[in-house]
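The step that takes the researchers longest sounds almost clerical: writing a folded protein down as plain text. The outcome of that step, for a single protein, is printed below.
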Amino acid sequence: MPVDDRSKEIMDQFQQLLSQPDETSSSASTPSGASTFVDEIYTEVMGLERHGRVRGYGFGLTPTSIFGSTNRMRSRAILSTQLENAQEILIAAKQKFTTTTEELSNVKEELSHVNETFEERLIEVQRKTREEVKEEFEEKMMEMQRKMQAQIQE
């Protein structure tokens, strides 16, 4: 229900243009094409937008007050891009951390194996050294006993 005669005229004109078949545009069959078609009819009925004003929001409102400034939009876009980059860097860092942790675990296992092998060989060397020292000590003792017996027999 229109509020005044001017509104009724606009509504009638809009309905009339909507009911006409669109021979020139085949894009009206797609959802975005239908939206474009309605936008074209709206512009034809209402006229072009006045610079710095937004229809349908009342008096005094500007595109900046409704949609934000282009600087804010750019800032948001920049921040969004920076956030995406930071998230990609974080994902890469997590992957590198995981890889490094796995490599460290492998190195620890290898070091443990080398340490076990070293301890086994050290024990073997100590055992051989004890046997050699014992044999050398026994040989020296025998030699001293022979010398003492030789001196006693003289």
